[in-house]
Amino acid sequence: MSKHIISAIQGVGHRTLEGIRRLGRATLYFLLVLWKSGTSLKRFGLVVRELYYFGVLSLIIIVVSGLFVGMVLGLQGYETLQKYGSETAVGTMVALSLVRELGPVVAALLFASSAGSAMTVEIGLMKATEQLAAMDMMAVDPVARVVAPRFWAGVISMPLLAAIFSVMGVFGGYLVAVVFIGVDDGSFWSQMQSNVDFRVDILNGFIKSCFFGIAVSAIAVFEGHDSLPTAEGVSVATTRTVVTSSLVILGLDFILTAFMFRGL
Amino acid sequence: MTSETLVEISDLNFAYDDKRAILKGVNMTMKRGQLIAIMGGSGSGKTTLLKLIGGAAKPSSGYIKVSGQIIHALGHNALYAMRRKMGKLFQFGGLFTDLSVFDNVAFQMREHTDLPESMIRDLVLMKLHAVGLRGAHHLMPAELSGGMARRVALARSIALDPMLMLFDEPFTGLDPISLSVIGSLIRRLTDDLGMTSIIVTHDVQETLSIVDYVYLISNGVIAAHGSPDEMKSSEKPFVHQFIHGEVDGPVPFHYPAQAYRQDLGLEDIFV
Ligand SMILES: Nc1ncnc2c1ncn2[C@@H]1O[C@H](COP(=O)(O)OP(=O)(O)O)[C@@H](O)[C@H]1O
Ligand SMILES: [Mg+2]
Questions:
Q1: Residue ranges covered by each domain of chain B
Q2: Which atom number of ligand 1 is nearest to the Cα of residue B41?
Q3: Mean pLDDT across chain A, nearest whole number?
Q4: Residue B104 buriedness (CB in 10 A; 0-12 / 13-18 / 19+)
């Protein structure tokens, strides 16, 4: 009995140490990517290529999800606000929810599962098929040439995608509230305009999505490069990217929200 | 041909972890212009040795010198400068799957030189011509057969005319014709470009017919070395077994195990 307990405790300790070691490796890797980002600046074409690839990969899902989330917000918001006779505030509600929270968070979750996992698979397969080792033997640094451009493309596209998500969401809310239900057009927009603050709401939302972009891209490239060079290794790494990124996004969101809107 | 030493390996020891030594006290000398084979069974440490020569791993003790410089003592930039003079053909080719055959071969020229595109085009076609695939320059790696992919990888690795070429298992997974095509290509390119080439392989017949010198490694130590003729006529039991591909000999067929009877649970009955 006591043997089982001891081995259970040992197991927990072992996994904790392993987790800490992994976190350490990931942090060092992140610094390495930053250190070797010079090439990405000098040859920005490399980043643009990846930007196109990952941007296009996520665009459809971001546009469609943004539209539907906005439409649902419009419906729910109208139902609730109408009880208090303030249904014209529905525009404000939709816009604030999107710009502050849902835009950055949902776009980041979608980005992690589409572009993030693609990044992991791509780098993992390049490792498994010796492409990265071959590049290194050709005296071309794989971190500078392959990893850093993908990382920066992820970092740049995240706020753009979040912005597109929010715009589509506001449009979805407008469709439902104004076009279908018949809320007054002028008050929908004017209330939104006067109640959404550029610095507090839009800028903070933008900062959030920048953090998410850095987190998701860093996790995705690390998992890809750290994967075991087999088919199974790559598939495990891909799952890890999606799960870890999602948890990190939600955790970060709570912390950032606490700092930004409660002024902790 | 000069008889100047290009690669010198001295008392080299290496282990991936503390448990098991992979290479134990390896000594080798390779002269410029030679084509050298390192042979041995799977898992005997051949790929590891190539990694060490290319600077992708550091020895636990001993050293490898390439053209007078100790590889593991080089910093990042010096190592990269050295690697520009080396080429390596990987076991699985390692072609960039998102680039065409042409762009794969042009990769190093574009990364490391400021040559105008028109000159790169001529050079790439020349290298592809040398491996007989000039007509395939527009194809993607996925459209190539195994033998063709290997030849493209070969063209890519000689793109900058290396002084030292490393080949990791260039013959595995090829049909007999592609196999001898690759074999004679390696010999011809070594002579034409004045390179020194090291082939790691366990394909005995093809290798003995093209190389100048052979090292046979077994369990991380050099079991024998000599010219192909010396190897063929060697009386040493291990060399004989390896070269002639016999099933049993000094290298046992059975992985170490407890007595067979015991594994079958017969021990109790028969004692
Ligand atoms: N990255 C690694 N980590 C730990 N052990 C390894 C690694 N690579 C190879 N090995 C072990 O080292 C030994 C030699 O491997 P290798 O050099 O690939 O042999 P060969 O190329 O002769 O077949 C094998 O037993 C293998 O299991
Ligand atoms: Mg090998």
A1: 1-85+163-177+194-271, 93-161
A2: 22
A3: 92
A4: buried
Q: What are the pLDDT digits (tens) for B74-94?
A: 999 999 999 999 999 988 888
CATH fold, domain B1-85+163-177+194-271, is Rossmann fold (3.40.50)
Find the largest Cα–Cα distance for chain A.
73
Q: Is residue A114 part of a domain?
A: yes
**Domain, as residue range, for A50:** 37-261
Please report, rounded to a whole number, the percentage of residues in chain B having pLDDT higher than 70: 93
Interface ipTM: 0.84
B61: left (phi over 0), alpha (psi -120 to 50) or beta: beta
The span from the CA of A191 to the CA of A81, in Å, is 14
State both tokens at A4.
């089982």
Q: Cα separation of A225 and B8, whole Å? A: 33
Spell A152-173 as b/e; 16+ CB within 10 A means b. bbbbbbbbbbbbbbbbbbbbbb
Helix (H) / strand (E) containing B172 = none
Is pLDDT of B136 > 80?
Answer: yes
Q: Give the residue, B93 or B265, on which the prediction is more confident.
A: B93
Asked whether residue B267 carries a pLDDT value surpassing 80, the answer given is: no
Question: What residues in A contact B153, CB-CB < 8 Å?
Answer: 134
- Stated pTM of the model: 0.87
Length of chain A: 264
Burial environment of residue A149 by CB neighbours within 10 A (0 to 12, 13 to 18, 19 or more): buried
Residue type, A209: S
Where does the pLDDT of residue B206 fall: very low under 50, low under 70, confident under 90, or very high at 90 and above?
confident
User: Which residues have C-beta under 5 Å from ligand 2, the single-atom ion?
Assistant: B 47
Question: Which of B56, B83, B92 is closest, CB to CB, to A138?
Answer: B83
- For chain B, strand residue ranges (E) read 5-15, 21-31, 35-39, 61-66, 69-70, 86-89, 164-168, 196-201, 213-218, 221-226
Name the nearest CA neighbour of A135 among B90, B85, B210.
B90
- Min Cα distance A140 → chain B (Å) is 7
Q: How far is CA B170 from CA A3, A170, B151, B203, B232, in A?
A: 52, 60, 10, 9, 22
Tell me how many domains chain A contains.
1
Q: Is residue A94 part of a domain?
A: yes
Q: Is residue A177 domain-resident?
A: yes
CB contact under 8 A, A138 and B111: yes
Query: Where are the strands (E) in B5-100, listed by range?
Result: 5-15, 21-31, 35-39, 61-66, 69-70, 86-89
Does some domain include residue A17? Answer: no
Under DSSP, the state recorded for A200 is I
**What is d(CA B128, CA A194) in angstroms, rounded to the nearest whole number?**
66
